[in-house]
Amino acid sequence: MFGAKRKKLKPEEDRRRCNYVTIQGRCSQGKVTLSKDGVRFPSPYCRYHCCKKVDGAACQDMRINAKGFCQRHIQCQGQVNGTRCTNAVRGYDPKEFKFCAQYHNCLALDCKNERFYSSESDLKFCADHRCTSPGCDRPKHTGPFCASHTCEAPNCLAFAVGGGGPGEPTRYCDRHRVCQHDQCERFTHARENGGLSNFCGAHYCAWDGCEQAREGAGEGEHCKAHSCIEVAALLPEMPNTGLRG
Fold first, then answer.
1. Of 45, 55, 118, 142, which one has the greatest count of Cβ atoms within 10 A?
2. Which residue segment(s) compose the domain that 70 sits in?
3. What is the pTM of this model?
4. For each successive 10 residues of the chain (245 residues), what is the average pLDDT?
5. What is the pLDDT of residues 17-74, one digit of tens each?
6. Domain for residue 93, yes or no?
């Protein structure tokens, strides 16, 4: 009947009721008992309002979401400038994740690890999933590096400098680097000091330290800038001058 008074509960009945209270009154559901590893832990709330976290005792706080956890237990465990992050863990489920999706959880699908930071730069992925090239924030490809930093030669997983478009010299490792001369697909020339030229044995300038291409096929071993030196070396020495010409 409208306006009828509620039955007054006995003290022991009142103690068994959920502690959740609103301006409409106290929750009428009974308090729940949580279980972990065969041990039972009484909660101050009913099954609709209790936080499901048990850590030596049932959590005394009220849940705030449908996953069944309180504000404290869905908080990200990552750090921001030495202070604990205030974001909620990924998926709002601390049973699955410890870190927030925004700043601390690895972006790899289903990964639960904390992402890697380098000198405060967010590299977006954890150590297991990030490219191992220093400062790179892309995920690993088929080996330890991302697609851009993995050599494009078939079945090669070695490091490449990266950058540029597919097929450019920067997309190959030192062993498989391709000549930069137009339409040439030969590997670059290895100099006597072990360094690699930008061009293959048919196109590199033989002048020490020069990274330009030869002036033309079959016209010597030097680029345009060093060709005059090559030609001068073939001329006879002029008497009493030490010069050639």
1. 45
2. 28-74
3. 0.60
4. 57 84 90 92 94 90 92 92 91 92 93 88 92 92 92 91 80 83 80 77 83 72 73 55 51
5. 999 998 988 898 999 999 988 899 999 999 999 999 988 899 999 999 888 999 999 9
6. no
> Considering the domain boundaries, does residue 19 fall inside one?
no
- 63-71 contacts at long range (C-beta below 8 A, 24 or more positions apart): 65/92, 67/91, 67/92, 67/93, 69/93, 69/94
For residue 64, tell me if it sits in a domain.
Answer: yes
CB distance 172 to 152 below 8 Å: yes
The C-alpha angle 236, 240, 245, rounded to 5 degrees, equals 30
- Number of Cβ within a 10 Å radius of residue 90: 21
Query: Residue 243: inside a domain, yes or no?
Result: no
Tracing tokens 């559901």 back to the chain, one arrives at 29
Domains of the chain: total: 1
Token pair of 57 as six digits:
């005792």
Q: Is 90 in a helix, a strand, or coil?
A: helix
| C-alpha span between 135 and 149 (Å, rounded) | 12
